[in-house]
Amino acid sequence: MVPATRQDALDCAWSGQIECGLTSNAKRMTPALSAAAAACTDPHTLDLGFQQLTAVQVAVLGVVQGITELLPISSTAHLRVIPGLLGWKDPGSAFSAAMQLASFIAVVSYFFSDIKLLLVDGLRAAYQRDFKDESWRLLLGLILGTVPIVVAGALLRHVLNRCDSPLRGLMVIGISSLVMALLLALSEKLASHARRFSDLRLADCIWVGLAQMLALIPGVSRSGATLTAGLFLGMQRETAARFSFLLGLPAITLAGLFELHQLSKAGVTAHGWMLLAIGLATASVTAFATIYGLLHFLEKRTTWPFVVYRFLMGAGLIAGVATGFLPN
């Protein structure tokens, strides 16, 4: 099926109809890529749509991932919306999850001294059975706070990663963005913004870890959910952001490595692995810059710009789908 007009092509990109892209790109797609794309018509197949993108397109999406993963605006939403607006193939949720390893690289690089000190002091305290030590309790809290999203992610994996996942619809993303904008606004208005990083306790890790679980819904944003929860718990804005980065480390590492393992069994071509490497490289650099920028921004400013952005994006997506201007 060849799209007759540019709008037809755009509709194909939005709706994820693989055959549209296959026809227009047939001459430059290898048999392996064609087979992988065709297999995506099976709803139980892992989505390998990113293999139909060019290196430049993946590099652009890597920049998008690096910026939006660590800002409270949802990387999954942007990796779904931006390709659609540009008429590109949806790269798929497996690509999004694998790209989270870029956040791991950036967070570990930026907070290397803090992470090293936490690990050394926490493990030493555990070895000495000093279970009241603050470093040990924070380390334990980060581990326990990761459990909810790991369990929920395992249970929802087949729904999240399949080619026609209903959770990747634009209406779901729009509603999620709108709800999270309202919650972030409430946390900004009601929170005390008084607690420092040294004031964090084990219970904070558990509560914020439960909020992190909501990030499995596209449009919620992992950093947005954890930052919002941190503010509701009375943390300073910069402390909430810093804590969000550290709490996300185990989750994004496990998710990224798991998706790479799944992709290795799903028939990813050499070209596909090269695209993933390009995406990870660009995402890592931009993620590091994003951490620096966000922490310095929140030292002196509020989260209201993110509230406004998320509200406008959510309202725009809902209105676009409801009026038929945007295919869901």
Write a structural description.
- The longest helix is centred in the last third of the chain and has 31 residues, at 270-300.
- The chain is mostly helical and 328 residues long.
- Residues 1-39 have low confidence and may be disordered.
- It contains 15 helices and no strands.
- Helix 7 packs across helix 13 and helix 11 runs antiparallel to helix 12 (222-232).
- The protein has helices at residues 6-15, 18-24, 31-39, 55-68, 75-86, 93-98, 100-110, 112-127, 134-161, 170-190, 202-212, 222-232, 237-264, 270-300, 304-322.
Q: Average pLDDT across residues? A: 84
Q: Count every helix, treating DSSP H or I runs of 4 or more residues as helices.
A: 15
Q: Give the biggest sheet.
A: none
| Uncertain residue segments | 1-39
Distance between the termini: 20 Å
Secondary structure: number of strands: 0
Q: Helical residue percent?
A: over 70%
Percent strand: under 5%
Helix-strand sequence: HHHHHHHHHHHHHHH
Radius of gyration: 20 Å
Shape: globular
Structural class: mainly alpha
